[in-house]
Amino acid sequence: MNQKQQIDQYCRQYKITGMAVKIEQMVKIAENKQLSYMGFLIELFEQESLHREQQAKERLLKTAQLPAKCSLDQYEIRDQNGLSLQKINTLKEMDWLDQIYNIMLLGPSGVGKTFFAAGLCAQAIEKGYKAYFRTMDDILNILRMKDFSRAAMADYKRLAKANLIIIDDIMLFPVEKAQAINLFNFINQLYENTSFIITTNKMPADWAKMLDDEVLATALLDRLLFRCEVINLAGKSYRMENRKTIFET
């Protein structure tokens, strides 16, 4: 067994794969820079650290369940849609997340609420936060099944430790009383330590109709809006403006 094979074996044994992948490259760099033994060792550990950080981000992106193509770099800024470039850049800095603020994206279907929320989720993950994207239906199913399904319980535990949770299309459909209570208990448990991004096409006044309970709707909104930036998105639907056709034009 040569030295490279020995190193690979030890790296696999002790799960230091980042170091193993770049070992030959790092040796050449050390030789060219004439690094000391201590300097070379630091370079190896830095490489392993970067590798693990990247792996952690990839795992978070996978479990975040983001929709495809949600980079804020691709977000189309429109005049009078409620989001200026200055506001977008402020939100991308994530200071609001450190202060445990919520964001409510309010507006009709097709104006980019989901895209923007998912983009902020991806940005948060890139900065090292635990962030997850779920529809309201996903959340209700997790809360309903967590005591019966290992997968649902695992997802619930991830959400319970999150820095940021996106709930997409909240109050799109009427909610049964038992599910409404589960949703309230979930948000009530987390809202002091977790930030939420809510996307909805329903005004807060309409939530009582969706929940069929004005008291419960008021209590839910009280927690979500306590520290919250409400952003009204206006304009025409992106989907309708970019409709596809099966015929040549």
In short:
By secondary structure, the chain is an alpha/beta fold.
Can you put this structure into words, describing what you see?
With 249 residues, the chain is of the alpha/beta class. It has two domains: 3-64, no CATH class; 72-241, P-loop containing nucleotide triphosphate hydrolases (Rossmann fold, 3-Layer(aba) Sandwich), CATH 3.40.50. It has helices at residues 3-13, 17-21, 23-33, 37-64, 85-92, 95-98, 113-126, 136-145, 150-160, 177-190, 207-211, 214-224, 238-241, and strands at 102-106, 131-135, 164-168, 195-200, 228-232. A five-stranded parallel beta sheet has the order 2-3-4-1-5. Helix 3 runs antiparallel to helix 4 (37-64), helix 8 packs across helix 9 (150-160) and helix 10 (177-190) packs parallel to helix 12. It is elongated.
